[in-house]
Design goal:
By secondary structure, this protein is of the alpha/beta class. The chain has one domain: NAD(P)-binding Rossmann-like Domain (Rossmann fold). Helices cover about 45% and strands about 15% of the residues. The protein has nine helices and 13 strands. The strands form four sheets. A seven-stranded parallel beta sheet has the order 5-4-3-6-8-9-12, with helices on both faces. Strands 1-2 form a two-stranded antiparallel sheet.
């Protein structure tokens, strides 16, 4: 469900309640000087209420960018708006459930209505569960795929026409090590990330004749974010990131770099290299050992 803007900043700070509508003067139409200047960017970030999304919002705001923040929590988005303003950015919150395609379309419309364009879109929304496939309820599996995969698909479908209309844009999809290798107990998340990696590659192939529109995929290993604390848990044990763990700041740095200097894929963290290497060179041994490694490294008795 998409709500109204919570807050924004122009010459003076403006606050608005969830039921109010705040209009900002559209930014100038982009030219080369604006696109190459961080302070001129308009960046939409999904999953902006926590983790990598929140960190990315802070990073872009600190550069003076305009950030459009999307997540489900109205209260938390209001906090992130204030944090972005304190860092020198201009921010607008649009409460959005990315698993609702109509809501994602409305998010694009609000961003363009308020600021005239979207220079970059960062897909950071994701949810997680831990448990054997047979123990994970069907609706939970569906919710994770709807948010973590289809949410990014809906975003691409909504924003690519805007990128084409304005002649430029960068789409950043946050994928994962789980898009390259699988581990037990995270079937819906692995399904989502494998799908996202393939989807991103298809988009790059289909956009090969539009050099000013880029699709970038970020592939971190395990990252220490609140996603583990918020996960649905069907293993009866405490969940933690599987070492080696990557700091969220490193992923945020990769996101900013992708917007400034688009690349097809950016790998973050040693875990990706180690896991992908083992999976590729010794798949049978990997399959036999990965279960005990996960149980010993990612699960703790309560």
């Amino acid at each position: 469900m998409v709500g109204e803007g919570l807050g924004c900043r122009r010459r003076r700070q403006v606050r608005a309640g969830a039921g109010d509508r705040v209009h900002l003067r559209p930014l100038p139409r982009p030219g080369p000087a604006i696109l190459n200047r961080a302070a001129g960017q308009v960046v939409v970030i999904t999953g902006a209420s926590s983790g990598i999304g929140r960190g990315a919002a802070h990073a872009f705001a600190a550069r003076g960018a305009t950030v459009v923040l999307a997540a489900r929590s109205v209260q938390t988005l209001g906090e992130v708006v204030r944090e972005c303003e304190e860092r020198g950015g201009r921010a607008l919150a649009v409460p959005t459930d990315v698993s609702d395609e109509a809501a994602v379309r409305t998010l694009v419309e609000r961003a363009v209505e308020e600021f005239g364009r979207i220079d970059a879109w960062v897909n950071a929304a994701a949810v997680w569960s831990y448990g054997r496939f047979e123990d994970t309820p069907g609706p939970v599996f569906r919710q994770i795929v709807d948010t973590t995969l289809f949410g990014q698909i809906y975003a691409a479908r909504a924003v690519l026409p805007q990128f084409r209309a304005q002649g430029h844009g960068v789409l950043v999809n946050i994928a994962s090590l789980y898009g390259r290798v699988a581990t037990p107990y995270v079937a819906p998340y692995v399904t989502s990330k494998w799908g996202l990696l393939g989807f991103s590659e298809v988009l790059r192939q289909e956009l090969r004749d539009t050099p000013n529109i880029a699709v970038c995929t970020i592939l971190p290993g395990a990252v220490d974010t609140p996603i583990y604390r918020h996960a649905a848990n069907y293993v009866g044990r405490q969940i933690r990131p599987l070492p080696p763990v990557t700091a969220p700041k490193r992923v945020v740095t990769a996101v900013v770099r992708a917007v400034d200097h688009p690349k097809a894929e950016i790998v973050v963290g040693r875990a990706h290299h180690l896991g992908a290497w083992a999976h590729r060179l010794a798949p049978r041994i990997y399959d036999r050992l990965v279960g005990p490694i996960v149980e010993g490294g990612a699960l703790r008795n309560v």
